[in-house]
Amino acid sequence: MHQRSFHYANGLTGKNAELYYWASRNREVDFVLRRARDLVAIEVKTGRRKASLPGIEAFSREFAVKRKLLVGKQGIPLEDFLRTPPENWLD
Q: Can you give the pTM of this predicted structure?
């Protein structure tokens, strides 16, 4: 796991929320935040190409997702994402 992933997971300590990675049939979601029944699917894209999100779309068909986040050049800037407490995305 990347150092930033550990940092992000540590931000959930004592917050009654969990962090997961999800994969199914060649589709994946980088981060899934869960608190009770609330799910947030997070995809991190660092490339310059237009981001497609097949993992998030597949995950959303299988589960009731409260929020979908794209982090990177075409979405939330990475530094802003990392500065935001993880549980804030579940609100």
A: 0.83
